[in-house]
Write a structure and sequence with these properties.
Blueprint: E1 12-17, H1 27-30, E2 42-46, E3 49-58, E4 66-71, E5 78-87, E6 93-94, E7 98-102, H2 116-121, E8 126-143, E9 146-163, H3 164-167, E10 181-187, E11 201-202, E12 208-213, E13 216-224, E14 227-239, E15 260-266, E16 275-281, E17 285-287, E18 295-296, E19 302-308, E20 313-323, E21 328-337, E22 342-345, H4 347-350, E23 358-359, E24 362-363, E25 365-373, E26 377-379, E27 386-401
Parallel strand pairs: 8-27, 18-27
Antiparallel strand pairs: 1-4, 2-3, 2-5, 3-4, 5-6, 5-7, 8-9, 9-11, 9-14, 10-21, 12-13, 12-15, 13-14, 15-16, 17-19, 19-22, 20-21, 20-25, 23-24, 25-27, 26-27
Amino acid sequence: MTFTTALNPGQAGIIWANGLGAVTPNEDINGSNGAIPNPPQVEVFVGGKTAQVLYAGRTPGATGLDQINFTMPADLEGCAVPIVVRVNGNTGVISNFVSTSVARSGRVCRDRGFTEADFQSAAGGALRFGNLSLGRTTVKSSAQGFDLSARFDFGSAGFFRFDYNTLIRSSTVAEPPPGACTVSTFAGDSEPNDPALNAITPLDAGASIGVNGPNGAKTIARTTPGFYSSQLGGGTTISGLPPGVPNPFPNNMPDYLAAGEYTFTGPGGADVGAFTARLNFPQPLTWTNEASVTSVNRTQDLRITWTGGAANDLVVISGSSARTSPTVGGTFICYSVASAGSFSVPSWVLSALPISASAQGTPTGQLLVGSTSLEPGRFTAPGIDIGVASYFNYSGKNVNYQ
């Protein structure tokens, strides 16, 4: 499905896959009638909700191709609603995650940062897009008696032209809706990239972007065509060092981000004209059970709790785990809303990650909890069709996925 051919709640969807089981007699000789002796229990989760399975078996007339028919659950909307299949219950097997677009009515979806009108106005042509962002990431780690804390404030911006056909098929432009989780896995040395992103065209918005807030003015430098990024504050500290041993990370800066209003200024470039945009950076939410989460049992739901955050915050919970021999890894990401106060990552999501490796007794798995703009603010600039401004504030630590 694409962003402009969305399904609606209550409609039937079809998944084609393989692995539900063998048929008898040999279908290579006799063909398939769709029947699988002793078929496995099949569950379909769509956007974190359990879908009604209408049929699960071999596709009639197709050798080795399985088909699962299901009904789209109610109260779903988004351009990247995740779908995953589980067979044989809690002790069974989880499939890879895919996504589809869902609209409450009509055929055009809406997503965080994009509306139905955005996709309709770009139909058949292209969409020129600009993004401004401020964010803080804090990651804590403990190993061999040392406590490391890396806290960085960042500013970034991106200006790109999306071909329409690329945009409506991209798996990374849109995000799952609140209440949903998705998982990406990899084998080998690197995670796969969305090939659609290779088709975007960078736009020149000038040599740098300025930002001014409660702690003064900073510059966000251009790093590659169309993309701007700079560390605005923070650094890395280590506690537990022997007396007289200096911090091995001497180039730390004071924190830059504080709650308040920030103003971006763009001087303009060959493709994007001069602009001014404003963003309110709120007080961050507090991850209240952070200290107690040290190991994650992948066969049980993982409950995360928090307090605070802005009323329009989207809560992001993300984790990753990898190991070698063979090299495999996975990353999950789940979304909620700040007003919920808690979220349980389902065990069927966690089961898609491998058991964590360790380095000198320290687990290498990561768990991150934070917030970002549920509905990014908009700004205008000559040369772009849509401009969005957003914030994020994440806190993470190393954990052991068991």
